[in-house]
Amino acid sequence: MADQPRFQLLGPVHAWRGDREIALGSPQQRALLAFLLLQDGTPVPVSRLTSALWGDEPPPAAVGIVRSYVSRLRRALGAAAVESVAGGYAVHPGATDVREFERLLGAGRSAQRSGDAEGTATAVRAALALWRGTPLAGIAADFAEFERVRLAELRLAAREDLAAADIAAGRPALAVADLTELIAEQPLRERPHELLMLALYRSGRQADALAVFADIQRRLADELGLYPGADLRAMQRRILAADPTLDAVPGAGRPGDARPGKAAAFAVRPCQLPPDLPLFAGRRDEIDRVAAALTPSGASVPVVGIEGLAGIGKTAFAVHLGRTRGDFRDGHLFVDLGTSADPLAELLHGIGVPAAELPGSQGERATLWRTLTSGRRLLVVLDDATDGGQLRPLMPGSGGAAVVVTARQRVYGVPAAQWFTLGPLAEADAHALLESLVGVDRLRREPDAVGALLRGTAGLPQVVRAIGERIASRPEWSMADALRRLGPPSRGAPVSPPECTLIEAPYASMLARLTPEQARAFLVLAAADVAEFSAVTAAGLLDVPPGAAAALIESLADQHVLTPTGPLTYAFPAPLRVFARGRLPAGRGHELIGAIA
User: What angle do CA 206, 207, 209 make, to 5 degrees?
Assistant: First the structure.
């Protein structure tokens, strides 16, 4: 938008609207704005803001001062610039030079991976041109110092990458000039010396290249008592041997090798999605809508959430989507949030960061994750999410990545997420799935029995699949036999049929996650001999006030345990009612359903 402010953080903190600079007030007020901008749109509690500005010794009126700063920033930047969110504040990162710097570095890495030295040089040179001095100059807070160190390291690595790209593009003399300046600033940093040796060698200055090695060898010994690292030593040996590969090093990476570590992380193409279902049924319209929503736009990261009943096939849907749709040439990452002890570590390992190089804090890991994924065409599948706080640190860098989240109910607090509800299969799709499992001939002979069987599944794909696999294992059964034989075991039965175990496992997991009040409502309402019910009906069955009953059934509908059948009425999917009645305590006097249909 034309009215959107542009923010400079790679130097003294400034803001502009068009060509006009916006007055941002005192250094502390600028520090508050800078801290919010660096959170990339994540809401920040007031307590964290006071800690960021004043450390462990905030003034007595710190909360009031923060609110005053926010009020002044809103007047300067616009009323919507600083949003109040859940006891804190958030600023959309907007057009910050830090985000643009990281985006351009990501574009440079993409070009580097494809062997495009010119593209790498163009993107990295544009990124470095954004610097206007010391980042966050004039801000004395600890967070600013941490950010200065992080950005300075990124800038050093970018200068090295630019030199490597210029060398690979046939401009060794230009790289010599840049590297000589860099070495004057960082005399003990080894990679610039390694690159300078290569640039000099390609310029026909073999003796000068070997003199660079002698100089860094002396410096390291005199000041640190160290010997040059393996890469420098290898470069010296190759120059002495006139290694022909030094004359034509492809790409814009490290000179002449594929060194492991952080540099190699950029070359890793993760393929972590589980196998696709061999018989994925239907969902064509849903796949089309979600695939369209995953198309990156500008600096945003598209995030799509898939919600639905336990066992409805959310994970299978996300996997099928990732394997069949979209241009995710840089790979696919998958994390089961229900079982992962450290999702950020898993994601960083997935793109090649060794365990020894993982930062210590979660905040630093999140920053590294965004930096390494910026500009990469990755699909990140975050399975079985439960809350926004769990998801926000896992959002990748902008410029190419997309995220699919699966959850049993909608997760709030993830900026710009689009949510889709995965419901039952359409009747034709459920029939096609059953046909693929059982065979077309068996289904054609008994259409009425097949229709009754499918109605009992309520279109739930895991139920259709479990029943189809069971029927396929009994070729001697007719469809009428299957309709009569299949169903939950009677109370006290010595064994449970295998299809029941498969169907009920996700429902048992769902039931374990419910609160005691929700679990009681789930069981009592399922026992009632009514096809659908309202909050008033539920209040009578549960013996609670209508308001409490309405809240309970809405919470169950949020988890897709109940299906809305009208503005004020709800019903159970048939298989879920069967499951619930099978969990009723003995002696309740409620009849169990005898068959799935």
Answer: 65
Q: How far is CA 573 from CA 304, 320, 423, in A?
A: 26, 25, 11
Q: What is the pLDDT of residues 57-70, one digit of tens each?
A: 889 899 999 999 99
Helix (H, G, I), strand (E, B) or coil at 485: helix
What secondary structure letter does DSSP report for 311? T
**Spatial CA neighbour of 305 closest among 167, 407, 196:** 407
- Output the CA–CA distances (angstroms, integers) from residue 229 to 188, 201, 217, 218, 253, in the order listed: 11, 19, 10, 13, 18
* Count of Cβ atoms closer than 10 Å to residue 589 Cβ: 7
Task: Indicate if the alpha-carbon torsion angle 406, 271, 322, 329 is positive or negative.
Answer: positive
Q: Crossing angle for the helix pair 546-558 and 535-542, nearest 10 degrees?
A: 110
Work out the number of other CB atoms within 10 angstroms of the CB of residue 409. Answer: 21
Burial grade of 482 (CB within 10 A; 0-12, 13-18, 19 or more): buried
Alpha helices in 340-485, H assignment, sequence order: 343-350, 362-373, 388-391, 427-438, 440-445, 447-457, 461-472, 479-485
Give the residue from 117, 49, 52, 59 showing the smallest Cα distance to 87. Answer: 49
**DSSP assignment of 122-168:** HHHHHHHTT--SSTTBT--SHHHHHHHHHHHHHHHHHHHHHHHHHHH
Closest by alpha carbon to 457, among 448, 468, 444?
468
pLDDT at 322 over 50: yes
Q: Is pTM beyond 0.70 here?
A: no
Which long-range contacts link 579-586 to residues 24+ away (Cβ below 8 Å)? 579/488, 579/503, 579/504, 579/507, 580/522, 580/523, 580/526, 580/527, 581/488, 581/526, 581/527, 582/488, 582/491, 582/504, 583/511, 583/523, 584/523, 584/526, 584/527, 586/491
Q: What is the DSSP letter of 340?
A: -
Q: How far is CA 574 from the centre of its chain?
A: 35
220 — alpha (psi -120 to 50), left (phi > 0) or beta? alpha
| pLDDT tens profile 43-52 | 899 999 999 9
549 burial level (CB within 10 Å; 0-12, 13-18, 19+):
buried
Q: How much helix, strand and coil, in percent to the nearest 5, is found in the chain?
A: 55, 10, 35
State how far the alpha carbon of 141 is from the alpha carbons of 32, 41, 55, 557, in Å. 10, 20, 8, 47
Partners of residue 382 on adjacent β-strands: 335, 405
Measured from the Cβ of residue 385, the count of other Cβ atoms closer than 10 Å reads 24
Contacts of residue 379, Cβ cutoff 8 Å, sequence gap at least 6: 294, 322, 326, 328, 331, 332, 333, 401, 402, 403, 404
C-alpha to C-alpha distance for 46 and 72, rounded to whole angstroms:
16
Burial of 230 (0-12, 13-18, 19+ CB in 10 A): exposed
pLDDT in tens, 13-55: 999 888 889 999 999 999 999 999 998 888 899 999 999 999 8
